[in-house]
Amino acid sequence: MTDLKKIDTYAKKWIKEASDRIKDSFSKELTIQTKSHANDLVTDIDQATERFFIEKINSVFPDHRILGEEGFGDDVQSLEGVVWIIDPIDGTMNFVHQQRNFAISIGIFEDGVGKIGLIYDVVHDELYHAISGEGAYLNDLKIPQMRKTKLSESILGLNATWVTENRRIDSSLLAPLVKKSRGTRSYGSAALEIVYVATGRIDAYLTLRLAPWDFAAGLIIIEELGGRATNLRGEKLNMLEGGSVFFANEELHDEILKDYLHNGKW
Ligand code: IPD
Ligand code: CA
Ligand code: CA
């Protein structure tokens, strides 16, 4: 049987070590490159952090596989066995511009089932963590099950991109949602936005395009707290390809899906 406690203990130790390295980099000059487009940034620290995790995981758990954003892990085509899904720095733009509001995000799956979710807000020293079936925690504090909310009393995590002209969704579809909600927020780190939903700081997070490493850990934490995690059509999330995502408490998820997303037929 897989020893989840052992994996969790090592993962937390490595997260703390990696975060010390990241904080050390604040006083040094970053090497910044762009990836798919001019605003898709990657730094030498994103890459070094991913390599750090891969080296550590390979040395202690040689039979585990790693799907990492920066591509130094394995060519993962299935979720058989134990797979670590890693975003070494989620919120790289914040990391570069603000030196805060970014996180290390690690989701660990066994045969496709989410087992351990770890999201570390490096600068605020906030570790959100869950082992499936054992509750979710923020540092040492147990996070309560998610409360239910109505849209009119909810804050939505939503980027303005999706209510302006864009190539993924008719921008008029989400506008009524924004109008009916109590307000919207956008923090620039999907992993943090998902755990803000988990802790009730916001009530839903919706976006049109994420990769598996952006939401793998968050998915495990949200599900542990009784929340819903689907794509914007209400379907199961695809852990190998990603796509749109929609995280919310149960009641709000139902309301938005039915009244604003036409039960996924948009
Ligand atoms: C990004 C952040 C951002 C989200 C982007 C992601 P990165 O991740 O999570 O909030 O809107 O879609 O790509 O590139 O900083 O790891
Ligand atoms: Ca990311
Ligand atoms: Ca990243």
Automatic annotation (TrEMBL):
Binding-site list for Mg(2+) 2: 90
Keywords per UniProt: Hydrolase, Magnesium, Metal-binding
GO biological process: inositol metabolic process; phosphatidylinositol phosphate biosynthetic process; signal transduction
InterPro entries registered for this protein in UniProt: Inositol_monoP_metal-BS, Inositol_monophosphatase-like, Inositol_monophosphatase_CS
Single GO MF descriptor: inositol monophosphate 1-phosphatase activity
Superkingdom of this protein's organism: Bacteria
The protein's required cofactors: Mg(2+)
Residues noted as binding Mg(2+) 1 in the record, renumbered to the chain: 69, 87, 89, 214
Keyword Ligase in record: no
Reactions catalysed: a myo-inositol phosphate + H2O = myo-inositol + phosphate
EC id: 3.1.3.25
Entry-linked PANTHER family: INOSITOL MONOPHOSPHATASE, INOSITOL-1-MONOPHOSPHATASE-RELATED
The name this protein goes by in its record: inositol-phosphate phosphatase
